[in-house]
Amino acid sequence: MSTETLINEQxxxxxxxxxxxxxxxxRPVFVPFVLTPVINTYLFFQLIGIFFYFIxxxxxxxxxxxxxxxxxxxxxxFLGQLYTFRRTDYAFSENRLISCSGEWETxxxxxxxxxxxxxxxxxxxxxxxxxxGTITLTLSGSTLSSMVSVKDPHTIYRTLEKLSLDFKSDLHxxxxxxxxTNPGYKTQYRPxxxxx
Length: 196
Prior knowledge:
Largest sheet: 4 strands, antiparallel
Strand order of the largest sheet: 1-2-3-4
Distance between the termini: 22 Å
CATH class of the largest domain: Mainly Beta
Number of helices: 4
Radius of gyration: 22 Å
Number of strands: 7
Order of helices and strands: EHHEEEEHEEH
Number of domains: 2
């Protein structure tokens, strides 16, 4: 993948280093990315409405109020997710992960692979239907970074986990101590090569 292609529809970009080789670039899957927060918002309001209904034992006023309120906020969330979807891109290279996203302004985040402490994959029912999932990275310092609703998440997870391990291994073993088949950190990432 050429390094100059990390540009989304609005022209926001993360300029990579000149010698950087990108392994994967992608966007979220539209339906789960947009609809999951909408469904969660609406269900949250309905649960509150049912709770108040059983507490007050009043007629259906609480249910109606929270149903209308839930619908209103669900529409707002839907419009926000539509806008955010067009501004969201993910990519990772041999040494870092980059995400571009945001509602009102696009934020470009870069995470070095050696800062990743844990990688996990989660799939909700809607994502499972569409072969999508969310990859969550736990970084040093217990902060989190996520790639939301990406396609084929388990393949991305395995690739990212291997890249992170290889990157950390390169940092911990100085070049002078390497076998001749692995001359140094500056070599390109070749997962198919033997003796890696």
